[in-house]
Amino acid sequence: MTANEAKEAKEEGEADLPGAMNVNEPRLWINNGWTARVIKNEDGEGWAVEMIKDGEAEPALVGPWTMGRDKKNPKPLDTSAFNTLVKTASEVLRRHEQQLYAQYHKSVTVDAPSGRIKVTLDIIPDEYDPHALLGACDDFGEQLAQVRVSPGFKLNMSSASAWIDNDFRRPSP
């Protein structure tokens, strides 16, 4: 199967056909949900490789690619290089997902007179109704309170303690 046939099959949803998604060409590999494509480096001389996960519009990874022996053409892709690129691109995506999760979910633990209280802030970045949920749980995971707050609410030890001291009333904006 040529690269164009594989691309057309991919676009038409024929991925369940045996071998429909496996292309092993010197500058294009499609396998296991990933596409590796060797491209001309836009930033200057030489070549680059881009890794695109199936279903994604943008590459997960773009990096420099080695020149071949003739110092003019790119080194051909091979199994070892493709597997390394898949591993690296997967790690990039995993770290990005972790970073997004950390950006939208924060927590602090406060020592209160009633015991340790975990205060959480979960930001919901809705296009039409962005907001956040400020919550509190005891050491046993029992929810003590939950209120809706602005997505810009700053959760830290001071704001969490103030919320607890104010009997979990909704903080003023």
Automatic annotation (TrEMBL):
This is Uncharacterized protein. Residues 1-20 are annotated as: Disordered. Residues 1-12 have a biased composition (Basic and acidic residues).
